[in-house]
Amino acid sequence: MKKLSPPISGINIKGYNVFESILNDKIDNSQTKEIIIAQCLRNTITYDQYNFYPLISRLFQYLGFNCITSRTGDTNNRMDAILVDDFQSIPIEIKSPTEIGYINIKSIQQATENKVVLLSRKFYPTLKSTSTLVVGYEYPPTRSDVIELIEDISITYNINVGVIDLFTLLTLAWNTFYLKEFFDKNRIFTLRGCLSL
Hints:
alpha/beta, Trna Endonuclease, Chain: A, domain 1, 6-stranded mixed β-sheet, 7 helices, 6 strands
């Protein structure tokens, strides 16, 4: 069975600053974290999968994960990316802002399918209790059925679906890169529902 391709363009995050890449400029130290992240969000609103998938991969690398993205058009392996781990790899369904602005029901269904495929085809080692993820530009609207579906999937199939928006991922990456804060990866391994800061 075919494994996912290595990280796009072989990013080595040492010496690479994803925030400066998004802004196309050096970080202005006179600006606050909140202003810079807001600008990053504005700059990424037009990202399609070719820009957004590598960005998500790099941000997860800042959190200490080995994140690789799949090749576009690889029908053998439909997950968009995976957090590779020796024991509990995590499939990721990614929704770029040009595809849909927020995480929706369909993306939750696709994340569940990704987990089933990973468990059955064993591309990488994982545990049934380990989460499957959806990463998108924004969290679902508060009145959507997304959270209810996540709970239904957990109760019925014992699969944890976690969702992460770009703002949260950027903030956590900033905190680890600039503030040198420790990120507990178990928060991702066991995530169900929305990741909080």
